[in-house]
Structure formats: C-alpha cells, structure tokens
Amino acid sequence: MDRKEFFSQIGIGTAALLIPACLSGCSKSDSAPTNVDFTIDVSTGSLATNGGYLVQNGVLVARTTSGSFLAVSAACTHEGTNVQYVSSTNSFTCPNHNAQFNSTGAVTQGPATKNLTKYNTTLTGTSLRVFS
Length: 132
Ligand code: FES
What we know:
- The chain is α+β, with helices and mostly antiparallel strands.
- The protein folds into two domains: about 1-30; about 30-130, 3-layer Sandwich (Rieske Iron-sulfur Protein).
- Helices cover about 20% and strands about 30% of the residues.
- It has one helix and ten strands.
- The chain has a four-stranded antiparallel β-sheet, with no helix packed on it.
- The longest helix is centred in the first third of the chain and has 25 residues, at about 5-25.
- The protein binds FE2/S2 (inorganic) cluster.
- FE2/S2 (inorganic) cluster (FES) binds near residues 76, 79, 96 and 112.
C-alpha cells in the first residue's frame, strides 16, 4: 500500500464513521414526543410553586409566575440538550449553546432553527393533563 492509497482509505473510513454520527445528531431535532397524554399532581413538587418546572416523558412542564401552565418538548432542537424554563422572562433557554425559545416554543435565538413542540394542558383540581 502506498501513501496515497493509505490516506485515501483513512479518508473513506473517517467519512463512513461521521455519516452515521451526523444522521444521529440531525435526528435530534425530530425527537419531540408524539401522542403525549399524561397527568401530573401539581399540589406537590416543583409545579406547586409559580415559576417551577419539571421534565417528564420528554416534556418540560412549567408553571408561570401567574400560575398558568406551559408544556413544550424538553429536548433542544439544536443537539438535544434539555432546555430550562426561565420564569422571569416566561421563556426557555438551552444551557448547551444558549438557544432561546419563547413561551410558545418558537426560536428567538439560535443556533437552534426549529421550534420546540408545544403541548396542551388542562387543569382539573390539582391534576394537570398534558397532551398532544
Ligand atoms: S443543544 Fe441547545 S443550543 Fe445547542
């Protein structure tokens, strides 16, 4: 094997390794849960307090400072890191590369380019239903 042939094979091998990694990374943007339908008791835990939030079943559920509820897909559409709820601005931020999303999940700052998926919420007593 001569030098040119060696580097040619290394290049092909590297490309073969990177393609599946890219496909895996790219698919993160489509990882929002589907067919969501679950309930949470909001009388205890982080959702008992205005401004609190939690992640369950891949969905971030937040209680705003005014006491209403929001639910969006938890995985950042950039590379899949779980976003965090920021009660002071009623928005979501990604701690990984600082993408920002408004309360409806729409991107307001990159590097993410795709919105978070928003889910419906209905409160009955202290039972919050989160659903698609
Ligand atoms: S993973 Fe969220 S901004 Fe990169």
